[in-house]
Amino acid sequence: MAIFVPDGTSDEFDALLDQLRDIVPDAFLDGELDRAALLDALGLDEDSKPAFSFMWPGIEQARRDARVPTTVTLKPDDDASCHWPDARDVLIEGDNLQVLKLLKNGYSRAVKLIYIDPPYNTGDTFTYKDDFAVPERQYLEETGQVDDKGNATTSRIETGGRKHGPWLTMMFPRLVLARHLLRRDGVILISIDDNEVHHLRLLLDAVFGAENFVDMMTWRGARKGDAKLTGGGQDYVLVYARDRSYLKANDVRWRERKEGLEPIYAKVQDLRTQFGDDFEAMTESLRDWYKSLADDHPSTAHAHYNRVDEKGVWFPDNISSPNYRENLTYTWKGYHPPAKGWRYERATMERLDTEGRLVYPEDMSRRVQVKSYLHMREEWAPASVIYRDRRGASASLDTLMGAKVFDDPKSTDVLARLFHAITDDGDLILDFFAGSGSTGHAVWEQNPKDGKTRNWILVQVPEEPDASEESGKNALAAGYKTIFEVTAERLRRAASSLQQDTLGATQLGFRIFRTRPTNLVIDKPLFAMPEMTGQSYLTQVLDHTAGAPVVEGAKPIDVAWEIALKATATRLDASVMTRDIEGVTVFEFVPSDADALSGRLLISLEAFTLATADALNLSDDDTLILRGDQVEDSVTLTLAPRLQSKLILLERVPREVSL
Ligand SMILES: C[S@@+](CC[C@H](N)C(=O)[O-])C[C@H]1O[C@@H](n2cnc3c(N)ncnc32)[C@H](O)[C@@H]1O
């Protein structure tokens, strides 16, 4: 039998200590952590300091923020949701720091891709807050540069950190928690601009490891022609893998379909009608057509595919091997091999020759080439530079919402391309700075295109729209009290518009959960002080245990969800069946992936009896969670040997701390 006590102290430490105990048992010889032994095992001494590290005032606070346990829960809101019963996608209202802590049990190592677009800390106003700077005096005091009378304690006053420090303190714990949720082949993509890109990269190096850096993509938007110095207009997408060496070992390749293919195919089709089998004329016309395109036309990236034959558009590709191999250095039809040999073995060369794919120059000293057809090379690695003017995304969102209610949403087509390249069928995508919900919309757009089912979790704080901004004013006028309500409505409208476009396709929907104060009574830890008598200690214990472990008036289904999330690995897309067994309500949580199920999860907050257990056909594989103050000891004593640690009692006795 296990006891579940929501005691408000950190069990993060316990989990970490357990892991350390497992890896370095000799640092725990007396049961307690021997700090010196641990440092010794790591080859460090007490005074060891890293030669190079990234610090800012506030890092200690940021570390604490990551560790402190959460005292909130997620409350389901069926009414505001869109097709709750079948929905697998989830929109969560709340501060993402709290939410990430609540996702830890159910989603540890479960997320394939995290995309976030946090506030950039520009200091400007948008629909949301984008200024993290603290007042100068506060910063100087907090960093000990002035005393409480305002007198300088140093000759070199530094104030730059007052802008960046608080932003880093906000980001650090969120990134630490987010990393836990990523699968081993998972990846995080973060949009950012020049205000914080340099700090964010160092921060990500610290949290994810510099060795897991993949790329700093540039997203080119509209250039500012009237800028005083340079045109700007770009921001960045930092890409880090959870474990880059794992991607390498598994030969993971991210691929996306090239842009600009359709216009080329259409042109070749026209030329075919015009010139029939005169491929020379077609080739000449195709080259003229490429020249007529604007520089930023997506087809220009493929302008080297400028020859046409009966099989399609091609270019003569190099046929030299990149690495020397003896079996590749043979003479082919009188042509000498390149220095490192041919790219193909003899058998492949023979096949290519039969297919008419080899191009033989008249001059035998020149190289044989291979015809590389565009239709055989439609995919490539996602580009590190993305060209997309953001005004298009804003205009689409304004049209969908009937007014401008959110500033600068991300383009769903760019996000969809990235999701297509990096994720696969069944993958989960998380965005915990959801804004207007572009990530969810993009996943829905992409799924039918490549026939895959990806799901999403989005988190958005119920921040009030900034009334000093046009978008904020419009949002408030339209009745959206919070940005979260904008997110939810955008996704409802997106679902309905995409549904119309793809009649008969899977029903789009999402569940809404809202962050609310806990339904469980969280006691402070019991302190056994040396001077306490047995009686005063007992009184303290009785005071704590007398009351109910659940807050009065809490809705049973909300309590059940909270216990399921905090005491088990239940996910938010589970379905809940409510049973009434002779007056005792039992909630059964069924995961969406029921195949992976080894037993049922049953939660009852009422006077559960052995008869209830019989009526449920309780099996040894089932997990049963009961309220300690509601069940007879005889029931738990009978069930405990059968269910062992799968019988969990919700209790109010806090952990004892000896001082
Ligand atoms: C740059 S916007 C994201 C825009 C989004 N990518 C889109 O396309 O609409 C950042 C969003 O993060 C939200 N946000 C800021 N702090 C948050 C927090 N602690 N938890 C959840 N959301 C937060 C802001 O309200 C804002 O909507």
Taking pLDDT < 50 over at least 5 consecutive residues as the criterion, the unreliable ranges are none
How large is the count of helical segments? Answer: 20
Mean pLDDT: 92
Percent range for helical residues?
25-40%
Terminal Cα separation, in Å? 28 Å
Strand order of the largest sheet: 2-17-3-16-15-4-5-7-6-14
Assembly type of the shown chains?
Answer: single chain
- Tell me, what's the shape? globular
Largest sheet: 10 strands, mixed
The share of residues in extended strands comes to 15-25%
Which structural class is indicated by helix and strand composition? alpha/beta
Number of strands: 24
Describe this structure in words.
By secondary structure, this protein is α/β, with parallel strands linked by helices. Among the domains are: 2-7 and 520-658, no CATH class; 259-306; 311-373, no CATH class; 385-517, no CATH class. The protein contains 20 helices and 24 strands. The protein has a 10-stranded mixed beta sheet with strand order 2-17-3-16-15-4-5-7-6-14, with helices on both faces. Strands 1-23-22-21-20-19 form a 6-stranded mixed beta sheet, sandwiched between helices. It has a 4-stranded antiparallel beta sheet with strand order 9-10-12-11. Helix 13 crosses helix 14 and helix 14 (438-450) packs parallel to helix 16. The protein is globular and about 105 Å long. The mean pLDDT is 92. Bound molecules: S-adenosylmethionine. S-adenosylmethionine binds at residues 95-96, 117-119, 128, 406, 409-410, 433, 435-436, 438, 459-461, 463, 483.
